[in-house]
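FORM 7B: Structural annotation worksheet

SECTION A. Query
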Amino acid sequence: MERFYKPQSSSSKAKLIDLNKFPWDPADRIKIMDYHPDQRDEIRRKYLGNGPCQPRGHDFPKKTIGNKERRFIRTWFDKYGNWLEHSVKKDKAFCLCCYLFADHVGNQGGRDGFVEKGFNSWNKTERFSLHIGDINSVHNKSLKKCDDLINQNQSIVTALHKQDDIVKRANRIRLNATINACRFCLKNALSFCGHDESKTSICKGNFLELMDLILFHDQELRQLPKAAGNNQYLSPCIQKDIANCFEEEVLKSIFKEIGDDVFALLVDESSDVSKKEQMAIVLRYVDTHGIVKERFVGVVHVKETSSLALKSAIDTFFAKYGLSFKRLRGQGYDGANNMRGEYNGLKAKILEENSSAYYVHCFAHQLQLVVVTVARKHLGVVNFFDNISILMNVVCSSCKRSTILREEEKEKVEKEIGSGILETGTGLNQELSFIRPGDTRWNSHYKTLTRLVDMFKSINKVLEYVRDECNNNTSSQNQAISMLNFLSSFEFVFYLHLMLIKILGYTDSLSQALQRKDQDILEAVKMVETTKGKLQKFRESGYDRILKKVHLFCGKHDIEILKMDANYVNDRAKRQRYDFTNQHHYKFDCFNTVVDMEIQEFGDHFNEINTELLNNMTAFIPYDSFSKFDATKLTRLCEFYPYDFDNGEKIALAHQLDLYIDNVRKDERFANVKGISDLARVMVEIRKHITFPLVYRLLKLILVLPVATATVERCFSAMKIVKTNLRNRIGKDFLNACVICTVEKEALQSVTNEVVIDRFQKMKSRRGQL
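SECTION B. Predicted structure
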């Protein structure tokens, strides 16, 4: 855990601290009087705004008291919800309001077990009532001070600046307009500030320009009396406060949807534009409608990416929002050692706390490794992609060459439309470009090679232009000559079609499917197995199909077709002639070798799909009238989740499974169910999840297992839109609020202005009353 600075005991020597760095777990807190006097009320508001630390989903440990097993009871949160807290770290109960104000109302009872040391005598439940006491007790006085702090009407500032109803109504109208402008900027990832925000500026920035637009169209807003400068709700501080309100309400809706149910954790790290390491956190869960959701909950700045630093940041985040590692049932990361390390990785550290938090190496990353390994091991494939890289540099290195490529392609399309080869219509014959593939997703090479086939003649025209016209650039001329020879070779055409049809063609559809948010792990495993099966069939009968396409392409573009029974000549080795034939080289040395390498890599990288855990899960698959259903496997599956099924429930599950399978096989509403995701949704729709609660619980445990970290990567894409070179000084808290609101647009849309106004008013003392 992060070590927090403890100020001197004298309040005059206490230092100001970062308001976002104080601890959330009650066991880690220092005395409220040890904070700087200027910050105490702000800290109190922060704690009250977040609410008591109540990890409702935590599996509270048992302790022996008087020869009986005792533990904290979750229902106590409901009974004493406005003050009772629980520290996961120490397994003790605390009182939030007494921590915040007991020192202000006297010492009697102010330093009891609920404030300093914590309470864990779970057999003495009367101590809760004794702590509350009578109307004049320390606890009730502290609770009253908490209410007064939140209630702006009780503040001294309000008393000194009494405002009538007309002024309050005007403040509310202005704040509503500001909230609408902030909502629009957050939703569309727009920057708030401008270079010149003065009244005479014609480019004030998105926020002020939008406020002017709202003022222009809102007659009621224009007719309001002029407000004081600090009551116009336009300052950057107000904008950040409103963004924070939206963020907290969005997160509140997400955590409310999760409740005390199980969930999975997806984490990835990446640096932003200002070279700060950021960790994105996504939670995967099944909502009340039986739909799998992956929701982004925050970007956390970490000073380093070691497993200890990442675990510490996650601990702080979980404590802040009352999440428990005991409800975690899945982990999804990339394959970095700091994430998946067997002994010191983030995966291992979480498994130490919860053995049921099963790790799944991101399927999309594994697929990436499969393709990369093949592309780097086979000499012919390596040479092919090296030449493609050089080709990209020659063709796309200047605006003039790109323009020539577009003009050539445009002329070609016009001729083909005129001759009737191409049809016209909306969305057809769009302008294409020779795109550069990305390094982090090798399936992007698929689009590059597809464009190479479509624009082959135009690309050759550009190379001829460079060869004939660029006399002042000998290097480019030599590269163009080399590329023209490369593109006119039979070997190039063979590898081009081998990559398109096999390595990249088969894996592209799998890659796209793995990046769906609602993809379940059994469907992903099925698709991986299907892809491996297609590769195996392709190895047996695909060579002739490849050769046929190669001959058609060569004939279309006047490329010499090799005689397969002639001896192979290696153009890259000074035309060295070998004893074996072209047929032997292209079929056995190229085709069979590359396909075998990819099949082997699939088996090596996707080795977890053969584990007992996933093997037992397949018994839930609803295909072919639940033909794979096996009650024994599903009963065995619940053994992997000891926190979710006790001995009595395991026995009851066996009986429920027999009734469940007979019921769903006879029910026509399950006839067209396509996967376990649909199965969960249909069960909730027709309320079968109530009839078979244990079966549905087991089904949810399968659904929360993550498949890929694509959602996390989308969040990083949003972060790079929000934090650009022009906005590289944006603070981490404001950045977090902006990214959450930009990604979770649906949740942002459901947050009403009234809720934001209420939270905004309670954040701090404000002169303008609403």
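SECTION C. Observations
The radius of gyration is 32 Å. The longest helix spans residues 521-556.

SECTION D. Sign-off
Analyst initials: ____
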